[in-house]
Amino acid sequence: RYYALKARWFGQASLAHWVNDALMAVFFFVVGLEIKREVIAGELSSPRKAAAPIAAAIGGMAAPALLYAAVNWGRASVNGWAIPAATDIAFALGVLALLGKRVPASLKVFLAALAIVDDIGAVLIIALFYSSDMSFVALGAAGGITLVLIVANLLHVRHPIVYAVLGVGLWLAFFNSGIHATIAGVVLALTIPARFRIDERQFAAVTRDALAAFERGSGDDSGTLADQQRAAAVQTIETACEHVQTPLLRLEHALHPWVSYLIMPVFALANAGVALSGDLSQAFREPVVIGIVLGLVIGKQLGVTTLAWVAIRGKLGQIPTGATWKQLYGAGWLAGIGFTMSLFIASLAFERQPEILEIAKLGILAGSLISGIGGFLIIRMAAAKAAAPEA
User: Residue 81 pLDDT > 90, yes or no?
Assistant: First the structure.
């Protein structure tokens, strides 16, 4: 039955299927690159830096899931318990960016790290709870391709084409394994090299020598192409620029605009539509909507703030530099903007229950909107209060 479904998928897949299984794999690939970068050299690179956002993310996933499960216990809709556990990093940071310089940069970093840990949790939830009908043959193929990717990394293979070809094979293997195909994006990202070919000192020395050679050129007004010495110097600088960047950073920077301005809007257009026919007030009384709204609006801010407080008061982590507890509380509200990630999990949870999926979307949109407005107002008021003595 599973393989018959897969065969029909390729022939009759809707736009939503292609977006959710294919384009979202690219989104999760970029998420994986961000995760790896943060673990290697970012806010998750040391226990002291990582403790507060990790604790906050755990609280921000557990509390909403428990609230939703409590409201929907014993119903078919309980399968959507992970919907309010997700955070849309792009929208959360976007709302925070509207406040500009009124909030410290450290609060943005804290929210980004929290959302990235939340993404790790979402990936694990999708792999463990929203996958079925496992094919161990396909899983074995995915494991073999992953091993080849790791070997390529260890052999310092840096050309993106190698990883792209193997990545397509990995996606196909996961697609046929029963584990959601988007997980392939994260696995592929974790194998992308994150090492420089030359360090900053070598880069500076090479470019200085190349610039000196460029200046010694003929100075012919016909252009550098007519002067082989200058052309060689330019080529040396271009190569040095490539070698001083890691493939991970190059790919992240190259793909981020495509994800932000194409994949996410297409995903939203394909999945966020809500049929508003019927009694809207009755829809808001449905347990699935109540559970999602309570999870995103109440569960997120309580879970984030409480466990962040425990980690910071317990001297395991530290409050973002220059931020107040009220601003941190507001960031907890912003973490309740589930939107794209919540919609994605809802599409997996209620794939065979479209009637529940429709009202779940209503809860996601309402909960995300309330959380975004609430977080914006709380942080804005906190920033105004902090600036008042200076007025």
Answer: yes
* Among 62, 105, 55, 104, CA closest to 85: 62
Q: Is 339 left (phi over 0), alpha (psi -120 to 50) or beta?
A: left
Q: Do 106 and 329 meet the contact criterion of CB atoms below 8 Å apart?
A: no
Is the distance from CB of 194 to CB of 158 less than 8 angstroms?
no
d(CA 61, CA 345): 13
Q: Which comes out higher in pLDDT, residue 345 or 215?
A: 345
* C-alpha distances out from residue 147 to 171, 193, 330, Å: 14, 14, 43
Whole-number Cα distances in Å, 82 to 47, 186, 264 = 27, 19, 20
Question: Which amino acid is it at 94?
Answer: G
Q: Where are the alpha helices (DSSP H) in 130-246?
A: 136-154, 160-175, 183-190, 200-215, 228-244
Q: Output the pTM of the full model.
A: 0.79
**Predicted confidence (pLDDT) per residue in 289-346, tens digit:** 999 999 999 999 999 999 999 999 998 888 888 889 999 999 999 999 998 889 989 9
Give me the percent of the chain exceeding a pLDDT of 70.
Answer: 87
**b/e map of 193-217 (b: 16 or more CB within 10 Å)?**
bbeebbeeeebeebbeebeebbeeb
Query: 10 pLDDT exceeds 60?
Result: no
CA distance 289 to 292: 5
205 is written with which tokens?
A: 């020395």
Return d(Cα 291, Cα 338) in angstroms, integer.
Answer: 13
CA–CA gap between residue 254 and residue 275 (Å, rounded): 36
The residues, ordered by sequence, that sit 6+ positions from 266 with a Cβ below 8 Å of its Cβ are: 19, 23
The pLDDT value given to residue 7? 44
Q: The tokens of 49 are what?
A: 């830096």
